[in-house]
């Protein structure tokens, strides 16, 4: 399961690595289970960089603790759906797959 980062000082959560907490300025974070979030918005990108699928469906989801995550959608999801994070935090290139990173999937 992909984790969120939680500030040790104030508990604010983020998915994206930061040097400082955007809420309190704290500099130490712990990994915590993301749990489920709510899909807030969806869009489709039709012009993408080399190696990235086209069209590329993306979603914005809100997770507990204030974390908002933009990630790829691998299935048809609608605003308001419960979602979870799957996949790797980092994008990477392999010979047999395009660039991939974390994705949003329906809660099972």
How would you sum up this structure in a few lines?
With 108 residues, the chain is an all-beta fold.
> Low-confidence parts, pLDDT < 50 over ≥5 residues?
none
Oligomer: single chain
The level of helicity is under 10%
Distinct helical segment count: 0
CATH architecture call = Beta Barrel
Spell the H/E element sequence. EEEEEEEE
What structural class results from the helix and strand content? mainly beta
The beta-strand count equals 8
Radius of gyration: 15 Å
CATH topology (level 3) name: OB fold (Dihydrolipoamide Acetyltransferase, E2P)
Largest sheet, described in full?
A: 5 strands, mixed, barrel
Strand content: 35-45%
Q: What is the arithmetic mean of pLDDT? A: 88
Structure description:
There is one protein chain. With 108 residues, the protein is mainly β. The chain has one domain (3-106): OB fold (Dihydrolipoamide Acetyltransferase, E2P) (Beta Barrel). It has no helices and eight strands. The protein has a five-stranded mixed barrel with strand order 4-5-6-8-7. Strands 2-1-3 form a three-stranded antiparallel sheet, with no helix packed on it. The chain is globular and about 40 Å long.
Give the key terms:
single chain; 108 residues; 42% strand; mainly beta; three-stranded antiparallel β-sheet; OB fold (Dihydrolipoamide Acetyltransferase, E2P); five-stranded mixed barrel; 8 strands
């Amino acid at each position: 399961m992909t984790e969120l980062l939680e500030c040790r000082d104030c508990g604010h959560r983020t998915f994206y690595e930061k040097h400082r907490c955007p809420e309190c300025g704290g500099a130490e974070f712990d990994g915590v289970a993301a749990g489920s979030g709510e899909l807030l918005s969806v869009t489709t990108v039709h012009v993408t960089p080399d190696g990235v699928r086209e069209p590329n469906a993306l979603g914005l989801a809100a997770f507990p603790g204030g974390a908002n995550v933009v990630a790829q959608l691998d299935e048809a999801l609608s605003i308001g759906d419960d979602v979870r994070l799957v996949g790797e935090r980092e994008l990477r290139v392999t010979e047999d797959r395009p660039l991939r990173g974390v994705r949003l999937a329906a809660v099972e």
